[in-house]
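Figure 6 in text form: structure in, sequence out.
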């Protein structure tokens, strides 16, 4: 044993590499726990279980079960009682709010979806040589990527196919897109929003506005939160026809008098409805400059003079070497589409080109995928 005043330490230069490696282990372990349904099973078994009782109930090996449960305690996902003899495990508050199956979007689909997306990042070696393309994103949107379900507890890693140029492509299913895979994409998007959804609505006070148009508003989850925060507001959610049909099917009854769903296309030559408040949440980062030119021209034209545009995207630091989550999103964008993340000054430049003024940004603290940028159309 070292004497008390000796501090033993491994080489700090190795720390960043070791931490990155452990992050992969940690994510695999938690994804496996989700796929095994451990958290829901604990909840079903009266919320408190011993390792042996839990293992016996599900036909698991007790000694392995105990080690997995202890690892989940170490990650703050389970609590463990102090009893030395037969400690009991229960779900932490984090798990109860975000990892159990419920009618709210849960983060299971975020974690499993990140694992799916990381397979596209595994193809960076071809993307770095060939450049990115939109095929993967369009197929993911379509629900025609190879049928794996973002929310499915049996999500498995599979090899990603490449096209003749060695670009990664998601396989198109032989059958038409199904409601279930398109619905999975919808659930995945909502799960990304959930931890930050309220912060997005209050980042800038939009109480003076009458009608919100959420472009690419998907399930309507963000629009529902806006009408809750601003009771005077009505909302229109515009999205692709198949998404709108699905969103209508799942629309909560209490939102029906205030949120209307309409079919539309960012890139056709039809105008958007004229409103005084517009939202683009996780839309700008998906498209190249040519597509953005069509979308932002239409957006500006449809906004009433004096109106407001809100953009929810994660901001890059001005030096572009952080924050880490934005960097990861930016790399993901390059592997699945022609999009990218931007700094606030890049958003100011981009939106300023279309006539927007007074462009400001607010960061949302915590671990999440969103910051908020506000831009105004001059009152003439
Ligand atoms: C990345 S998701 C973002 C969804 C939502 N705004 C959010 O923040 O979670 C992109 C959304 O844009 C929609 N979308 C993609 N291309 C579109 C197009 N050409 N016209 C209208 N909506 C489109 C998709 O269906 C999807 O709902």
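Output sequence:
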């Amino acid at each position: 044993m070292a004497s008390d005043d000796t501090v033993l330490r491994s080489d700090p230069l190795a720390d960043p590499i070791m931490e990155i490696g452990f992050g992969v282990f940690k994510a695999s372990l938690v994804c496996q726990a989700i796929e095994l349904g451990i958290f829901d099973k604990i909840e079903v078994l009266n919320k408190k279980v011993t390792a042996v009782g839990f293992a016996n109930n599900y036909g698991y090996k007790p000694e392995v079960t105990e080690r997995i449960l202890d690892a989940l305690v170490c990650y703050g996902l389970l609590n463990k009682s102090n009893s030395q003899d037969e400690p009991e495990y229960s779900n932490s508050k984090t798990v109860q709010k975000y990892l159990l199956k419920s009618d709210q979007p849960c983060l299971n689909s975020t974690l499993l979806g990140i694992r799916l997306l990381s397979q596209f990042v595994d193809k960076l070696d071809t993307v770095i040589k060939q450049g990115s393309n939109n095929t993967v994103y369009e197929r993911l949107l379509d629900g025609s990527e190879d049928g794996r379900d973002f929310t499915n507890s049996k999500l498995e890693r599979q090899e990603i196919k490449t096209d003749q140029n060695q670009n990664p492509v998601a396989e198109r299913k032989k059958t038409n897109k199904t409601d279930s895979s398109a619905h999975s994409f919808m659930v995945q998007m909502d799960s990304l929003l959930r931890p930050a959804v309220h912060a997005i609505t209050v980042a800038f006070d939009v109480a003076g506005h009458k009608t919100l148009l959420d472009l690419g508003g998907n399930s309507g989850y963000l629009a529902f939160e806006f009408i809750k925060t601003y009771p005077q507001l009505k909302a229109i959610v515009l999205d692709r026809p198949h998404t709108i049909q699905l969103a209508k099917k799942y629309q909560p009854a209490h939102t029906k008098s205030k949120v209307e769903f309409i079919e539309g296309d960012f890139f056709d030559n039809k105008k958007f409805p004229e409103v005084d408040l517009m939202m683009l949440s996780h839309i700008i980062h998906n498209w190249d400059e040519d597509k953005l030119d069509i979308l932002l021209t239409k957006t500006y034209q449809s906004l009433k003079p004096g109106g407001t545009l809100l953009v929810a995207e994660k901001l890059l630091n001005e030096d572009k070497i952080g924050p880490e989550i934005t960097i990861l999103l930016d790399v993901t964008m390059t592997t699945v589409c022609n999009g990218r993340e931007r700094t606030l000054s890049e958003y100011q430049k981009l939106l300023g080109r279309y006539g927007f003024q007074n462009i400001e940004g607010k960061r949302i603290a915590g671990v999440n995928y969103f910051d908020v940028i506000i831009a105004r159309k001059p009152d003439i």
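Caption detail: The pocket of S-adenosylmethionine is lined by residues 141, 189, 193, 216-218, 222, 239-240, 243, 264-267, 281-283, 286 (CB under 6 Å).
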